[in-house]
Write a structure and sequence with these properties.
Blueprint (H helix, E strand, L loop, with lengths): L1 E3 L4 E2 H9 L4 H8 L9 H14 L2 H4 L20 H7 L1
Antiparallel strand pairs: 1-2
The chain binds FE2/S2 (inorganic) cluster.
């Protein structure tokens, strides 16, 4: 369904961006939603909120580096193959 008629932005497109952890302001800049007449702003904001509420873990995951922790102080423990030989 088209949410923003002025910029032809669909609900799927907004949801796809929201699921990556983007907020409304970032999505607005990226897609141009609610930048002309503004009639779609309420619906677009509501969609972003619904997506964040449905998948709260998306905001915790580091979007720039999938699989990496959001907190840069947490470093993944590198696999050391010599540890495996010690365990056997
Ligand atoms: S409908 Fe989105 S800016 Fe006009």
């Amino acid at each position: 369904m088209i949410v923003c008629v002025c910029r032809r932005v669909s609900d799927r497109e907004i949801a796809r961006h929201a699921h990556t952890g983007m907020g409304f302001d970032e999505i607005q800049l990226e897609l141009g939603v609610a930048l002309q007449c503004g009639r779609c702003e309420c619906m677009a904001r509501s969609l972003v909120q619904q997506c964040h509420a449905a998948a709260p873990m998306a905001a915790i995951e580091n979007a720039n580096c999938p699989g990496q922790p959001a907190n840069s102080n947490e470093r993944p423990i590198p696999w050391n193959s010599s540890l495996r030989s010690q365990a056997v």
